[in-house]
Design a protein that fits this description.
Layout: H1 4-10, E1 15-16, E2 19-20, E3 24-28, E4 33-37, E5 41-48, E6 53-61, H2 88-92, E7 112-115, E8 126-134, E9 152-161, E10 166-175, E11 180-189, E12 195-207, E13 212-218, E14 226-231, E15 235-241, E16 253-258, E17 268-274, E18 279-285, E19 291-296, E20 304-306, E21 311-313, E22 316-322, H3 325-340, E23 354-356, H4 358-361, H5 367-380, E24 384-387, H6 416-425, E25 429-434, E26 438-439, H7 444-448, E27 468-469, H8 475-490, E28 496-499, H9 521-539, E29 544-547, H10 557-560, E30 565-567, H11 574-585, E31 593-594, E32 597-598, H12 611-618, E33 624-626, H13 634-656, E34 658-663, H14 665-668, E35 671-677, E36 683-690, E37 699-702, E38 712-717, E39 731-732, E40 737-739, H15 740-745, E41 748-751, E42 758-766
Parallel strand pairs: 23-24, 23-33, 24-25, 25-28, 28-29, 29-30, 30-31, 32-33
Antiparallel strand pairs: 1-2, 3-4, 4-5, 5-6, 7-12, 8-9, 9-10, 10-11, 11-21, 11-22, 12-19, 12-20, 13-14, 13-16, 15-18, 16-17, 17-22, 18-19, 26-27, 34-35, 35-36, 36-42, 37-41, 38-40, 38-42, 39-41
Helix pairs in contact: 8-9, 11-12
Bound molecules: (2R,3S,4R,5S)-2-(hydroxymethyl)piperidine-3,4,5-triol (DGJ).
């Protein structure tokens, strides 16, 4: 029997401001079950037996009651140790531990390993107490989701290993507006001796027997975040980064979905890591056919010394459950990130249309060249000039000068302020590039401080792009670099910073760390990046910060906490971008995807796609230009005002609307299609890209999504030049009004377009 009064006192399904609070956390003392509810999902954990193991019970569609602790199977052999201590080891290796630990008989993937000064490694956690409160605490020094007391609720479960005098606080926060649970763990050493954490992952996801697929986002330089889906077989499926950055190669993300799950249907469990350094995502199907996935800081090379009463905070892991396929997972992540992770004045604002000189000039520019670009650009409606790499020290190629953050006045005659003022006088804002975390061997900084580079004494550190990584875990190094950056920003009216990072970490060694702390370097480095960026946005709250890492090697939720936009990829080819942007948008709102129109033949793949198509693809992100506007073909230049018009007309919708994937070129190899619907469902924009034309198909049927079935919508093909010329044909029912239900079920017809790499925008507006 449930103790009703007890449940009522912790259950806060109250009405606030007339609205039902859709999230809840309860603890039922009778059956010792925690129940976490999001609007459409429930997550249940239970405390079992006298020893107080915390087991995972259920994660899935929302349940209306908590009496399902039988799912932990403690009544099945080998039984809990209290009943059958003879088979304790068998129990440990089969029980769905909520936060599995190392060394006491659970041989599956675990989350926590602790080495004592005597060299032992075992740890076992049992329940001590818990608290449930409104709101969510900050994670000290780490990016993390946030919410007001009315927006989210948090459960903290205190666990302990009495032998080690080690405490672990497992935190779970649920949100009223999205089916996401944010979790992290704080580990505290209450013993008299130091201990070393050799693995401190952020959490596990235990699932029952089932046929699952694993979805990850895989890539490389200029090929980031391609969606990969494969079956979860017996054994392990894992992705990771040990590069000291989240990396081009694997997004810190993994989803497990029912084999039958589609874009719109079926159960999907998504896990995303709010962190920008080394990471591990591993899913394992065990001998009993059950599944456990773990996520956290990559454990190899990691260790963290905890002195008495010190604590270690793991980064946050987001769990999302969707019973509406990948679309549902995407919406849950987008809502979480837009409402509870991204910050700052620019978050909900239209960003200035920028022109960046990287692909226009590379290192070969001076102030006159930049002003020529700015003059043309401003006349065409572009709103900001961004000066990329090459403006400082003697940086004439990527071989030198990183660390020498003084303006090169031979290149920029008259200095930076003069240039910025002149650009401002053209009615444009000014932005600038930095790569603060790096040092070139050929730099004044390196000559003065060779030990500031991350390296192992006596071993020649490996160069990548002819540069080393600065040891910003040392406060004096981080302070020096921060001051260099800030001094430049204080010296002129600079509205935007592109913070780049162009190589992974290697040869890990810090001159400032003791031998038993060298394993802390990579995490300390990531914490230092966060500290520097927090300092930057605190000192310059109006600054628009864009993170970047050789394209998109650090496109992760951690960086999103500091910058509302991140450069997606160095591949600016419109067709290559389809897969990159599809994978990125699987998790991230379009408002944060750095996307620009560049010149053709494309500098990465040599492809020539129509200027118009390049515009349509870039309009799905932050939008800007990456070309020499003074040298592109006149027809392209003349198209810019039309694209600028489209940006101003649709950016509010693209930035703030709900994103839906309608077709994937990565899957069908012929065409791509996505849609954004305004939150009040009065307007939608469909982007259709026909990559390859094929014979014998006059039109293709596309069913829309997310509209109000009862509303009537006018369907119009958007004209690229705003004048409704012949190019506006190509979609049925162009110019007609149909119900949302018709458009979603019967769909629209997109006529085949002559040629390849061509596209159309379809605009829907509610007419009643
Ligand atoms: C890599 C970035 O992704 C590019 O956009 C450009 O800023 C270069 N670095 C500059 O070195």
């Amino acid at each position: 029997m449930l103790s009703l009064s007890l449940i009522l006192c912790v259950c806060r399904s109250v009405k606030r401001f007339g609205m039902e609070v859709k999230m809840n956390i309860t603890y039922n003392q009778e059956n010792r079950v925690f129940k976490l509810d999001t609007p459409n999902s429930s997550y249940l954990m239970g405390i079992v037996d006298k020893e107080g193991f915390l087991g995972h019970i259920y994660y899935g569609k929302r349940l209306e009651e908590d009496g399902v602790a039988y799912l932990m199977r403690t009544q099945e052999a080998p039984f809990v140790p209290e009943v059958n201590d003879r088979e304790r080891g068998s129990f440990m290796d089969s029980f769905p531990m909520e936060y599995p630990t190392h060394g006491t008989g659970d041989y599956r993937q675990d989350c926590l390993s602790v080495r004592t000064k005597d060299g032992y490694n075992a740890v076992q956690l049992t329940y001590v107490s818990h608290q449930i409160y409104d709101g969510k605490k900050k994670l000290e020094g780490l990016p993390a989701t946030f919410g007001e007391e009315t927006e989210c609720k948090t459960l903290e479960i205190r666990m302990e290993d009495p032998i080690l005098s080690l405490e672990a606080v497992l935190s779970y926060s649920v949100f009223a507006d999205t089916d996401a649970i944010a979790g992290s763990v704080r580990i505290i050493n209450h013993s008299q001796e130091p201990v070393w954490l050799t693995k401190a992952l952020s959490g596990a996801l235990n699932l029952d027997e089932g046929a699952y697929d694993v979805i990850t986002l895989h890539g490389g330089w200029a090929r980031e975040r391609h969606i990969v889906r494969r079956p979860l077989e017996a054994g392990m499926a894992a992705v990771y980064s040990r590069r000291g950055e989240s990396g081009h190669q694997e997004q810190p993300f993994m989803a497990l979905c029912e084999k039958t799950a589609t874009q719109e249907t079926g159960a999907v469990y998504g896990m995303h890591f709010v962190y920008s350094g080394n990471h591990l995502e591993a899913a394992e199907k065990n001998q009993f056919f059950r599944v456990r996935a773990v996520m956290g800081i990559y454990p190899e090379d990691f260790s963290w010394k905890l002195l008495p009463e010190e604590s270690f905070q793991t980064p946050e892991m987001i769990r999302v459950f969707s019973c509406e396929g990948l679309d549902g997972m995407t919406r849950a992540f987008h809502t979480l990130y837009r409402n509870h992770l991204m910050r700052g004045k620019w978050l909900h604002r239209k960003r200035p249309i920028l022109i960046n000189n990287w692909e226009a000039t590379y290192f070969d520019f001076d102030e006159q060249k930049l002003l020529d670009i700015a003059k043309q650009a401003s006349a065409l409606g572009i709103e900001m000039l961004v000066m990329d790499d090459g403006w400082f020290g003697n940086r004439s190629s990527d071989n030198m000068a990183l660390g020498d953050w003084q303006v090169n006045e031979q290149k920029l005659k008259g200095g930076l302020k003069k240039l910025v003022d002149e650009v401002n006088a053209l009615g444009m804002q000014f932005g600038i590039w930095f790569e603060p975390e790096m040092i070139s061997p050929d730099s004044d900084l390196y000559r003065a401080h060779p030990d500031w580079a991350i390296q192992i004494p006596g071993r020649r550190a490996g160069l990548i792009r002819n540069q080393y990584v600065l040891d910003i875990s040392r406060p004096e190094v981080a302070d020096y670099i921060y001051e260099c950056v800030a001094k430049v920003l204080r010296s002129a009216n600079i509205a935007y910073v592109k913070w780049d990072m162009n190589r992974p970490l290697s040869d890990l060694g810090s001159a400032a760390l003791d031998a038993d702390r060298q394993g802390e370097l990579s995490h300390r480095y990531t914490l230092a990046v966060y500290r520097m960026q927090e300092r930057l946005i605190t000192e310059f709250p109006d600054l628009l910060l864009e993170n970047c890492s050789s394209g998109g090697a650090r496109f992760d939720p951690g960086m999103l906490y500091y910058s509302p936009q991140i450069w997606c990829s160095d591949d600016t080819d419109a067709i290559e971008r389809l897969a990159i942007q599809e994978g990125t948008a699987l998790l991230y709102p379009l408002s944060c995807m750095g996307a620009h129109v560049s010149d053709c033949p494309n500098h990465t793949v040599g492809r020539t796609a129509p200027f118009e198509t390049r515009g349509y693809v870039a309009l799905a992100g932050t939008f800007g230009y990456e070309l020499d506007v003074t040298r592109i073909p006149e027809a392209d230049r003349n198209s810019i005002p039309g694209q600028v018009r489209l940006y101003h007309k649709y950016n509010d919708l693209v930035r703030e609307g709900e994103y839906y994937r309608l077709a994937s070129y990565s899957e069908n190899r012929l065409y791509d299609c996505w849609e954004v619907v305004s939150s009040d469902k009065t307007e939608a924009l469909v982007t259709y890209i026909q990559v390859l034309n094929v014979p014998n198909r006059k039109s293709r049927r596309i069913c829309l999504k997310g509209l109000d079935p009862q509303k009537r919508y006018l369907v119009e093909v958007e004209s690229p030049d705003g004048e409704g010329d012949a190019k506006t044909a190509g979609c049925f029912p162009q110019g007609s009004v149909l119900l949302g239900s018709t458009l979603m079920n019967a769909g629209i017809l997109m006529e085949s377009i002559s040629g390849d790499y061509v596209g159309k925008l379809i605009h829907l507006t509610q007419v009643q």
